[in-house]
Description:
single chain, 374 residues, alpha+beta, Carbonic Anhydrase II, 3-stranded mixed beta sheet, 25% helix, globular
Amino acid sequence: MDSFGIEIIFLILFGQWTSCACADTHWTYTGSVGQSQWSEYFPECGGAKQSPIAVETSQARHDPSLPPARPLGYRQLGDEPFTLTNNGHTVEMSLPRWMGLGGLPWQFTAVQLHLHWGSHGGLGGGSEHTINGHSYAAELHVVHYNSELYNNVSAAMRQSDGLAVLGVLIETGEDTNPAFENIINYLENIKHAGQSAPIPAFDVQSLLPLNLGPYFRYNGSLTTPPCYQSVLWTVFAESVAVSHVQMRKLETALFSGLAGESDSLPLQDNYRKPQPLNRRMVLASFSTDTVTTYSIGEVCAMVIGVLCGCIGLAVTIHFVIKTIRSTSSWDVLPSARPTSLPRSKETEKEPKQDVVFKTTSDPEKEEAAPQPEP
Ligand SMILES: *[C@@H]1O[C@H](CO)[C@@H](O)[C@H](O)[C@H]1NC(C)=O
Ligand SMILES: *[C@@H]1O[C@H](CO)[C@@H](O)[C@H](O)[C@H]1NC(C)=O
């Protein structure tokens, strides 16, 4: 408990990640030590392998050897509650040491998860990674360290093979997401920076998308100072959805300053802009030709659109065929048909009928062609 207390004090005083020489600089997302200035105080933030990135599915290379992401022990609850902390930059939840990540070149042990979000219900953005130019409302990061090579996360995060982070893109929808209630319901208890509260343990895997198969994989960095370039990223192609009410609570519940600070600002828009890709390769575990990252809403819209289109087409075809049958002539409007057309004129028109049908569709021609013969 003591070491945890010290860790919390470090978090408050020195920023989210720890105690490097430069870490007494209080960074923010906007303002005098905003994200455009980070690299002046934290040199690695100006590096060539920074995160987040703007993922373009057409530029990602399909690697069929990438297995589905494999969370280990995420569903196991244990006897202890989890701890939720407002560290002034985000809400962070510590993760028990039995949780890990498999399917990677080394064994990774879970450390913490945290969120990034916007301020307008997701409308102005909020996620860190973007996919094909699309910003999501928020993003969940589950941080793991390479426990096969390093003793602890502080040692690992300075090494190029030190960390593995799962990124989950979050959108808003109509339904309450019960998994996220386990966090959002307790934000009221950690309104101010430096506050922590125990929360009942829950199934952490329920925060992840159902389908852990399709994801993007690339080498990048911490998305907050000191921006160490030590992260093997897994960004899931499938997003998860929380309700508008849940998103609003996440955006408005927390403050970035200490309790009692009169100028404490709402903790909002704590997301970093996409960084240059610089020759890095982004791998996709799935074929980007066939799988795209449509939301449920978009899929519904597409299905309804296609159905309406089909019905419209069927009605049109039905109407055309019916009209052709009832008029037994190429005249589509019965009223326009001459009442007493001389026989010669009608026969004159007959060849034209064939031409018209040929240019439209063959099946109709077959149905309609025999009709002029009584
Ligand atoms: C982390 O590990 C490093 C090297 O193995 C060690 O020097 C350091 O004291 C450890 N830090 C913590 C917080 O345990
Ligand atoms: C990440 O970097 C390591 C070490 O340089 C390399 O072996 C690996 O292939 C890279 N992974 C990706 C997805 O680019």
